[in-house]
Amino acid sequence: MQTHEFIAKGIRFSIERSGIEVARAYLYVLKNDLHDTPFGLLEDVHVESASRGTGAGRELLDQILERTKTEKCYKLIATSRDDGTRQLVHDWYLRLGFRDYGTEFRMDFK
C-alpha cells in the first residue's frame, strides 16, 4: 500500500455584532484525484439562538461562497445530522441552494 500526504486548507469565518461573535463556520478546501480543482467542506456552522433569523447565517454563507469561488472549488458539501431535531437547519440549507444529496456515515472515536 502506498500513501501520499497532502496539505488541506482550513478557514474559520465568523460574524460579530457589537463585539460579540454571533455566527461561525469552517470551510475546508480539499483535493481528490477525481477533479483538477478542489472541493469545499462546510463544517461547524453555528448561529447563536438570539441571532437566528437576523441574516447572520446568510451573511456567513455569502462570505464562504465567495471564498469557494476564489479557491476555485467545484462543489461545496455541507453535512447535518438527521436525528429528527434538525429540520429547521435542513430547510435553511435547502433555501440557500443546497440539495439533499444522500446519507452521511461516521465513526466516533471518543
Structure explained in plain terms:
The chain has a single domain (9-95), classed as Aminopeptidase (3-Layer(aba) Sandwich). It starts with 8 loop residues before the first strand and ends in a 15-residue tail after the last helix. Strands 1-2-3-4 form a 4-stranded mixed beta sheet, covered by helices on one side. The protein is globular and about 50 Å long. The chain is built from 2 helices and 4 strands; from the N terminus they run E-E-E-H-E-H. It is 22% helix and 29% strand. The model has no long low-confidence stretch (mean pLDDT 95).
Classify the secondary structure makeup into a structural class. alpha+beta
Radius of gyration computed on alpha carbons: 15 Å
> Order of strands side by side in the largest beta sheet?
1-2-3-4
CATH topology: Aminopeptidase
The number of distinct β-strands equals 4
List keywords for this structure.
110 residues; Aminopeptidase; alpha+beta; globular; 22% helix; single chain; 4-stranded mixed beta sheet; 4 strands
Layout of helices and strands:
Elements: E1 9-17, E2 20-30, E3 39-47, H1 56-70, E4 76-78, H2 87-95
Parallel strand pairs: 3-4
Antiparallel strand pairs: 1-2, 2-3
Summarize it:
The chain is of the alpha+beta class and 110 residues long.
